[in-house]
Amino acid sequence: MLMFNKMVLDQGPLFAGMVTYLVPVGAMVWGWLDEERVTLLQGVALTGIFAMVALVQYGAADQPPQ
Questions:
Q1: What span, in angstroms and rounded, lies between the C-alpha atoms of 32 and 42?
Q2: Is there a domain that residue 2 lies in?
Q3: Given this model, what pLDDT does residue 34 score?
Q4: Residue 43 to residues 8, 27, 30, 50, 54: CA-CA distances in angstroms?
Q5: Does the pLDDT at position 9 exceed 90?
Q6: Is residue 38 situated within a structural domain?
Q7: DSSP H or E run through 21
Q8: d(CA 34, CA 28)
Q9: N-terminal to C-terminal alpha carbon distance within the chain
Q10: Which domain holds residue 18?
């Protein structure tokens, strides 16, 4: 929690939110390595999440956090 709060202060809430959306990818990869079934629907859902995060993040890196 401390590191997440530090990240919000240092990088801004938009960046911290983007990092939060990467957690499901780690979970899916971990499950796949543990020989769980990974479905096409899960991959499509993650692709949709990444597309929306990229849309929101577009151009935000050029602006310093306020």
A1: 12
A2: no
A3: 95
A4: 28, 12, 14, 11, 16
A5: no
A6: yes
A7: none
A8: 10
A9: 21
A10: 7-62
